[in-house]
Design brief:
The structure is a single chain. Helix 4 packs antiparallel against helix 5 and helix 10 packs antiparallel against helix 11. The protein is globular. The protein folds into 4 domains: 85 residues, NAD(P)-binding Rossmann-like Domain (Rossmann fold, 3-Layer(aba) Sandwich), CATH 3.40.50.720; 144 residues, ATP-grasp fold, B domain (D-amino Acid Aminotransferase, Chain A, domain 1); 50 residues, no CATH class; 83 residues, Alpha-Beta Plaits (2-Layer Sandwich). A 9-stranded mixed β-sheet has the order 5-14-13-10-11-12-15-19-17. The longest helix is centred in the C-terminal third of the chain and has 22 residues. The chain starts with a strand and ends with a helix. By secondary structure, the protein is of the alpha+beta class.
């Protein structure tokens, strides 16, 4: 039988495309970048210029079949709903998106679940203005439609957020992303990774996503996160891969920031060579309800990290020799070292994403040092090869 077609739509679908292709699907892709490694993986790639509205038109270029979405489309449930009328959706529909992305509903869920996980205080509308005498603490202004830490910045004293924005209490602590697989009734906990920030050079995005680093957690925190995933699926009927953004404060208290009802940027850290790919498991969970029986990684298991490299002051056109040089960088222990490689001819603007790098290490110090060396090598290649 010929491979089954599967259309992927999102801001960046390279990781999901590789997972789907390894699972035997004939991959079609629509995203913002059309990177070189995506084009080597997918049968057909269309680059979105007016994401996500043009996805409706671009999807017509692909053969009939199922589809799934990645980051960015959760902010546009109407687009998801319209696409779902054109072809079967493997994942969470528009109704689930609206419910699980509603912070009021999330807050009520957490209060009723009594897990000891709180939602930071939210202010919107008439309750939004910040008066220092009454609040004393720090607040963040957030966009209702954003992802990757974009559109999040500290609130100014007395600010009243504009339409489409709200205030959220700023929690001091470490950011994490937990990854799960759901079947609408039950959940499988895949793991949790520390999230790294890559602040924009102009100060506009101090919490911009910069990468993820897998971290061992103790038994109590693991039980808590396993229970959180199970309760979320039970309440919101989540299906397939989904992620939860959290903060852990210095006292060990957990706060839930948001739920992403689709695969997340850290997904490729949980791929295991020789095991079914995560997209294979996503499809099985959506179609048959099958969930894997995974055992926690051993304390001695190596740590994995992914880091998004931004261009900083670098700018210029990518020549073909640079694209090929990036493909030739030796692979790491169990995966590629460089991904999301730009096509030859791509114009690189200051402070935009360049590539994603990966590293493995026995301890955080070793991992950090390896990432730094790879970053130095890759940025050096860009600096030498970009054409003005």
């Amino acid at each position: 039988m010929p491979p089954e077609p599967l259309l992927l739509i999102g801001a960046s679908v390279r990781a999901v495309a590789e997972s789907a292709a390894a699972a035997g699907f004939e991959v079609g892709a629509i995203d913002l970048f059309g990177d070189a490694d995506l084009c080597r993986t997918a049968r057909t790639v269309r680059r979105s210029v007016r994401f996500p509205t043009d996805a409706l038109r671009l999807a017509c270029d692909f053969p009939p079949g199922t589809w799934l979405y990645t980051g960015g489309l959760e902010n546009h449930p109407r687009v998801v709903g319209r696409l779902a009328t054109q072809r079967p959706l493997l994942g969470n529909d528009a109704d689930v998106i609206c419910r699980v992305r509603d912070l009021r509903q999330l807050g009520a869920f957490l209060e009723g679940a009594a897990l000891g996980i709180a939602l930071p205080t939210i202010r919107a509308g008439a309750s939004a203005p910040v008066a220092p005498a009454a609040d004393g603490g720090r607040w963040l202004v957030k966009q209702r439609r954003s992802s990757g830490g974009l559109g999040v910045c500290p609130a100014s004293t007395g600010v009243s957020p504009a339409r489409g924005r709200y205030l959220q209490e700023f929690i001091v602590g470490t950011a994490y992303g937990a990854t799960y697989l759901g079947n609408g009734r039950e959940a499988c906990f895949l793991g949790v990774a520390e999230q790294l920030a890559a602040p924009a050079a102009d100060g506009s995005a101090p919490f911009r996503y910069g990468g993820s680093l897998t971290m061992p957690i103790d038994a109590d925190d693991r039980r808590l996160l396993v229970e959180l995933g199970a309760r979320l699926v039970g309440e919101f009927a989540l299906r397939g891969l989904f992620g939860v953004d959290l903060i852990r404060d210095p006292a060990g208290r957990w706060y839930l920031l948001e739920v992403n009802p689709r695969s997340t940027a850290s997904m490729d850290l949980w791929e295991s060579p020789g095991a079914p790919t995560l997209i294979a498991r996503h499809v099985a969970a959506c179609r048959t309800g099958a969930l894997p029986n995974l055992t926690p990684p051993a304390p001695s298991a190596p740590l994995r990290a992914r880091k998004v490299l931004y261009s900083g002051a670098l700018h210029g056109r990518v020549p073909e020799k640079l694209t090929e040089s990036l493909f030739q960088i030796p692979h790491g222990v169990d995966r590629r070292t460089v991904a999301d490689i730009p096509q030859a001819g791509t114009m690189i603007a200051p402070d935009q994403p360049l590539v994603t790098i990966f590293a493995t290490g026995a301890a955080r110090e070793e991992l950090t040092a390896t990432l730094a060396e790879i970053e130095r090598q890759v940025l050096g290649l860009f600096a030498e090869a970009l054409v003005e």
